[in-house]
Amino acid sequence: MSSGRYSFRPTTKVKKTRSTNYLGGGGGGGGRLRMADDREVLREIWDSKLPVSFALAEEEVYTVKPPEPYYLMVPRLLYFPLVTDKVRRHFAQHVNPEIANNEMWLEYNGQPIKWNHPIGLWFDLFSDGILPWSISIHFDKFPEQNVCRCPCKDAIRSQFMSVLKEADALKHKGQVINSMQEKDHNQLWLGFQNDKFDQFWGVNKRLMESPAGEGFRNIPIRCYTPEKFAMQRLVKPVDDANNSWTSLHDALIEFFPDFDASKVRILIHGIEPPLNSPIQWLSEHLSYPDNFLHVVILPTNFSSVPS
């Protein structure tokens, strides 16, 4: 554990030697080496969880005695609606019956949480680092302008599969996901929804395949800052100018031409990877289940706590 704002680290422990782990052979020549398959990293990323304390917003408490907070260990990789059914049942009996059937929404530090982004991404980007992560629950005044509604689990599946298909379009022109049968799509979704590593990766490994020494066509990558939530650029896995793998540092320059590593912290799953890590290796091993590499960039002095 390191000191400072992010004193907590998930169960994931990725050594620097792993982040630059590649194997020789497989063609490509020069600096184009073959990426190593590291199942241990995949498993530890998958198993990462966050302790969360859910509390009903004070202005919505309808009963004489306020409800106790509800505590959960939630997977970093999932979306909140997949883990909050019990949270809703716990608090619905303590609000005005007229709003008890409204869609529940979440808020942290005055900011509504968008359900269609992974939990771990929200924590890395906006959390003040204090655990358990304290989140407010609301049943009233849904923030229509900031958050899209989530009427059912089918909406979550549609969102997840849409992003996954976009990722495969960048990596393989959509050829892998389109060649799969409906049962494969179902297995991907059920493995993700139910937090089943083997079930999900039994299919997802096909989406992570690429020609040896070449990598994907493009890396599905999005960068996030507190000021600008999501940015996306085309990033090639190989620098043809010097025939070597594109590094994380190289990729970040595509987003920020004046990128200065001394002024920011780079987080993926709460981990600060070495900037010389090949972006292809990171994409294969540290992508979220939607197959995008979600990278958080924070100023070194950043805090989401209001002054």
Account of the protein in words:
- The chain has 307 residues and is α+β, with helices and mostly antiparallel strands.
- Helix content is 30%, strand content 17%.
- The protein is built from ten helices and 13 strands.
- It has helices at 16-19, 39-46, 85-92, 119-126, 153-172, 175-179, 182-193, 197-207, 248-255, 279-286; strands at 22-23, 34-35, 49-56, 70-75, 105-108, 111-112, 133-138, 221-224, 231-232, 238-239, 244-245, 264-267, 293-299.
- Strands 4-3-7-5-6 form a five-stranded mixed β-sheet. Strands 9-8-13-12 form a four-stranded mixed β-sheet.
- The two termini are 26 Å apart.
- Residues 1-31 have low confidence and may be disordered.
Mean pLDDT across the residues is 87
| Biggest sheet strand line-up | 4-3-7-5-6
Q: Structural class given helices, strands, pairing?
A: alpha+beta
What is the radius of gyration?
20 Å
Low-confidence stretches: 1-31
Strand residue percentage: 15-25%
The largest sheet, given as strand count, sense and whether it forms a barrel, is:
5 strands, mixed
CA(first)-CA(last) distance: 26 Å
Percent of residues in helices comes to 25-40%
Q: Tally the helices.
A: 10
Shape: globular
Record field, number of beta strands? 13
